[in-house]
Amino acid sequence: MHRVTVSHRSAFTLPLTFLLAVVLPVACSPTSAFRSFGSKPSTAYEQYAKSLRDAGLDKTGMGREWLAASDSALRTPLSATLPAREVGWYARGEARAVAYQVTVRGGQRLRATLRGDGQRARYFLDLFERSDDTTGAFVHRVSADSLAAPDSAAALMGLEFETTRDQQVVIRFQPELLRGGRYELTLQVEPTLAFPVEGRGNSAIQSFYGAGRDGGRREHHGIDIFAPRGTPVLAATDGVVRSTAPNTLGGNVVWLTDTRRRQTLYYAHLDTQLVRGGQQVRTGDTLGLVGNTGNARTTSPHLHFGIYVAGQGPVDPLLHVRREMSAVPELRADTGVLGRAANTRSAAVTMRASPNAGGDSIRRVGRETPVRIMGASAGWFRVQLEDGTAGYMTTASIRVMPERTDGGELRRQ
Question: What does pTM read for this prediction?
Answer without folding.
Answer: 0.83
